[in-house]
Design brief:
Largest sheet: 4 strands, parallel
Number of strands: 8
Order of helices and strands: EHEHEEHEEEHEH
Radius of gyration: 16 Å
Shape: globular
Structural class: alpha/beta
Helix content: 10-25%
Length: 195
């Protein structure tokens, strides 16, 4: 069981922490983000998996108030419910800031793809980033995060003081997805403590 007596500072996109939850089953590993998770300063979430989408899955983009896959499927419900589940986890862990995947239809902040699948960027936010901003979180992408402040570095827990439950088990390419009927690689909204 994870000890929540010391809140995490950040909720982070799980793909940035090295989990294989990107739409194509790969990661977007940023070692500095994985280090935050390992040190207990961050909790990883994948809103798309939490919303019930499999990995791998069709790429999706925001199109106005909706999210659609490149196959034309409306996946707004999955993205919205995943954003709500990820917010619940962030609040349970006491997070006040986020480091999210740039341009993602869930996690992008400031710029996102326009829904034409032509890699055209427009001003906007992913559904999870939008929700966090409305709740008063400080939101960064891996491209805009300035790094830990001196105060945050001084307050970081020692890794040996952390329980293993601070880090969600990593999924691997080819492993069962949420829809595959097997164990989910991420924290579920019904077990926010990694249980």
């Amino acid at each position: 069981m994870t000890d929540l007596s010391r809140p995490c500072r950040f909720v982070v996109s799980a793909c940035l922490a090295g989990l294989h939850c990107r739409y194509d089953g790969r990661t977007n590993l940023k070692p500095e983000v994985a280090e935050l998770v390992a040190s207990g300063l961050a909790v990883p979430v994948c809103p798309e998996e939490l919303g019930g989408l499999p990995t791998p899955r069709d790429p999706s983009e925001r199109r106005g108030g909706s999210v659609v896959s490149n196959a034309g499927r409306d996946v707004t419900f999955e993205f919205a419910s995943g954003a709500e589940a990820a917010l619940y986890i962030a609040e349970e862990y006491g997070c006040s800031a986020a480091i999210l995947k740039a341009r993602s239809p869930s996690c992008g902040c400031g710029l996102i793809y326009d829904g034409t699948f032509t890699r055209t960027l427009i001003d906007g936010n992913g559904l999870f980033a939008e929700l966090l901003l409305k709740k008063g979180f400080e939101v960064f992408t891996e491209e805009t995060w300035p790094g830990l402040t001196a105060e945050e570095r001084a307050c970081a827990p020692r890794p040996e003081a952390l329980s293993p439950a601070h880090v969600a088990p990593s999924s691997q390419p080819g492993s069962a997805s949420r829809s595959g009927g097997s164990h989910s690689p991420h924290i579920s909204p019904t077990a926010p403590h990694g249980e």
